[in-house]
Amino acid sequence: MTAQLGTLEELPAxxxxxxxxxxxxxxxxxxxxVLPHDRPNPVTKPALWSFERIRPLLLKxxxxxPVEKAERRVLVLNDPGRGKGAMQVTSSIYVGLQLxxxxxxxxxxxxxPSAARIVVEGEGAFxxxxxxxxxxxxGDLILTPGGMWHDHGHDGTEPVIWLDALDLPLFVxxxxxxxEEGELQAPRNRPDASQVEYSQPGLVPARGxxxxxxxxxxxRFPWRHTEKALRAQGEHAARGEPIELDYVxxxxxxxxxxxxxxxxxxxxxxxxxxxxxxxxxxxxxxxEGAGRxxxxxxxxxxxRGDTFSAPVFATVEHVADGEAFLIRIHDAPLQQKxxxxxxxxxx
Length: 347
Fold this sequence. Notes:
The chain is 16% helix and 31% strand. By secondary structure, it is of the alpha+beta class. Strand 6 and strand 7 form a beta hairpin.
């Protein structure tokens, strides 16, 4: 039986005034706001951001504001549950679309939050992370972990746009968010680790006794490898079986970033995917294809480049018109570290 809690208004006015004077307040009238029964009551609302509609606004930003002045020329996706100017898409995930024009160099900086980029459009850009130069090709996932210097450059001829995902809201809440500025980095004269040490599955560099592992050995996950792996899995997956692959640290098998997870998904034509109810919030980015997703009863039609969100314990269904590929960004690694991640069967 659910306990009936008293309200603040039931307390005498002089008692309430005395509590205010001492900067205290009674728990019981507020308890169900922070401890609702059975499951959380999220502020986050599901939403879709159309790349086709946002892209012209981003290109206009390129005309209006030079990258040197902006430092990072980004349009932030705002959660409708939090209203105008919300610097987050879910409680723990920030997402924005970033533009880099030919010949531009985005200044070097490092910050306490961790970030990842998913390339949406264009070619010729690169990200340098602690001296490792990572090419940026469509669909690639590129990490810039917290505390690591990174800058961006563009040697191509057309605009390059990518999706930024950061655990920024978590660091803002903890009052631990800050950045340092630095000089553009000189890249090492070699390909990134995805083309050398970690180019083949199941193989890692030999170390010998006492060899030290880098905390983030793989910074770039090329989409061409991911798509190939998804297709191989799909050839043997039964009808209705999820076709998903997690991005992980190849040395440890853990999530590639401490508090954010990334999962590549393949949807087959006209097949409905109904994942379990997850305690993690999520952002879905469409790498390829078109379809429709229903989240808590609200339907969103999506196509290549679009991004949409789902709050915690959302009821989610995906149906692709044809073959489709998505990347799910989520906060399951954070919840697992805190010991409360869970999945529930659908009713």
